[in-house]
Design goal:
The protein is built from ten helices and seven strands. α3 runs antiparallel to α5 and α4 packs parallel to α9. The longest helix has 15 residues. The N terminus is likely disordered.
Length: about 270
């Protein structure tokens, strides 16, 4: 007759085989849960989409980024990537993964490079923020910080206004960073605005430690992504609030509906369907 202890041990071993890996890690802490939201709207050419994909893969697997992860309090991050365009398009490229070692980073980068994509209509940054917040809500780890990282080459022109989506994310304690792609040319040049970096700063990004890194030339893209990841991974929130002298910065009002207005004007000019 088998002993009760041995039966329990065998049962536990059997159950563990069928427990999904993410559930087994659900109580694991990470320094940051980072969502990479990648623009694949039709204003991006196939060549630009490939440059973007290669740049992210190279940055994620770079020794500098892995070193930044190792220096964190927990020495690990949670990472996922999805593509966005219109407000209903949110396709996962690489699902949540625990990145702790160089091998982890290389595997994630391989998944990114193996994926194929096709450009989609419209640009809904508000939709991207909403989808990214939902992915963070389903995070299978415990994170000290939650960050949405948005790259895009134009302002919001579809879906709800971006300010409302940003406010909802910030209210949940999520930080939003931006990588505005201010490159020249492309099929969607008519939707471009010359101060996209300012648009991202004033209308899209926010939260503790938030920042914007503009890209004006595709040659800059790999370095910009690597720098951005290092900043996001290495950010340390202040242990306590410090009392500082109040400073006032008066800025001219900024029109965060500029993208919607461009779309409306072009639609009326060329008699597009709503």
């Amino acid at each position: 007759m088998s002993k009760p202890g041995s039966l329990l041990g065998a049962l536990a071993a059997l159950v563990s085989v069928f427990v999904p890996a993410w559930q087994a890690s659900a109580e694991e802490y990470v320094d940051v849960a980072l969502v990479l939201a990648v623009d694949i709207s039709r204003s991006m050419s196939p060549e630009e989409l490939q440059i973007q994909r290669r740049g992210y893969a190279a940055a994620i697997s770079s020794p500098e980024v892995v070193r930044a992860i190792e220096l964190g309090a927990h020495g690990r991050i949670a990472l996922m990537m999805f593509e966005w365009a219109n407000e209903n398009h949110a396709r996962v490229i690489a699902d949540w993964a625990l990145i702790e070692t160089q091998d982890d980073a290389n595997r994630f980068a391989s998944v990114v490079m193996e994926d194929q994509t096709r450009a989609q209509n419209r640009t809904s940054i508000s939709g991207a923020i909403r989808h990214a917040a939902a992915f963070l809500n389903d995070l299978p780890f415990l994170a000290d910080r939650r960050v949405i990282d948005i790259s895009g080459d134009g302002p919001n022109n579809q879906g709800p206004p971006v300010l409302g989506a940003r406010a909802a994310a910030l209210e949940k304690g999520i930080t939003i960073n931006g990588l505005p792609l201010m490159t020249k040319g492309g099929v969607g040049f008519q939707f471009n605005i010359p101060d996209l970096d300012e648009y991202y700063r004033r209308c899209v990004t926010g939260g503790p430690g938030s920042f914007v890194i503009p890209v004006t030339n595709w040659d800059q893209f790999p370095d910009a992504v690597r720098s951005k990841l290092i900043l996001e991974i290495g950010y340390r929130p202040p242990e306590r609030e410090r009392v500082i002298r109040a400073q006032f910065r008066v800025e001219e009002p900024y029109d965060c509906l500029v993208g919607e207005k461009i779309w409306k004007r072009l639609r009326e000019q060329y008699y597009w369907d709503p």
